[in-house]
Write a structure and sequence with these properties.
The chain is α/β, with parallel strands linked by helices. It contains twelve helices and nine strands. It binds S-adenosylmethionine (SAM).
Length: 289
Amino acid sequence: MYNLTDSAAVRSLLTKHGFNFSKGLGQNFIIDPEICPDMVEMSGINREYGVIEIGPGIGVLTRELCLRAGKVVSIEIDKRLLPILGETVGGFENLKIINADVLKTDLKRLIADEFGDMPVCVCANLPYYITSPVIMDLLEKKPGLKFVTVMVQKEWADRIISPVGSREAGAVTAAVNYYSEPKKLFNVSKNSFMPAPKVDSSVIKMDIRSAPPVGAEDEKFFFSVVKSAFGQRRKTAVNSLSSGLGISKEIISAALAECGFEPTVRAETMTMEQFCGLSNCILRKSRAD
Ligand code: SAM
């Protein structure tokens, strides 16, 4: 069996298959022996779980998942990795590898077809170039996941776990917190990868909420308010929301006043509850207009 955390063994495996890393596909493989077992263990994955892995690479995390989960489905876009995966993890009977782009995969369908009644989660070392679209897909499309554990750039993780209303938070922070309860599990040094990326990483776990934390009357409009607020975060809320939403400054000003805000307030300082109250108020006023 290959030791996928031994750099010399990994190099010889890759050379044997004539494989070169693709920077464009975010190929940085884990070579630190503690990370994958910790990721799976701290996620609470056991035999009851079905797991979707995004981007198995040469199978270092896949192997740990197969050892502990009931069933694993790994989605890998790079077909050059398939023969390597065949060699490293092909012996696991509870593994299915799908050669596809995760962003073009219907996960709801995949879960129904592959996992039946099992509780399902995602556990992955994500290709960083698609972190936000993948996470938003997993959360917004509500495919029926219990939790999502992912390794992402540390800076991205820090932004996600900052409270909505703090300087570090952004529109994605609000969205992630709306659909899930995110927490950081641990940081990972850039030296834990082959090849080493430029920045450090973190593993975060997002427990999917069964109900949203705030009562938005219109979810779509709530997210338009959040996006407009953070899209032009240096402007006052009156200006950013009016131009972002295409609603008159009079309506926005009146809604801000009704919700108890100063006219000069900046939307980036608002909490989730405040965003929600404001979006409900703007909606009512713009409908009455
Ligand atoms: N899981 C391995 C590990 O931890 O060492 C590899 C992680 S590497 C950061 C990301 C992997 O995602 C690569 O194998 C890459 O080919 C794959 N990948 C990149 N874009 C993808 C996409 N759109 N859909 C599925 N897999 C993708």
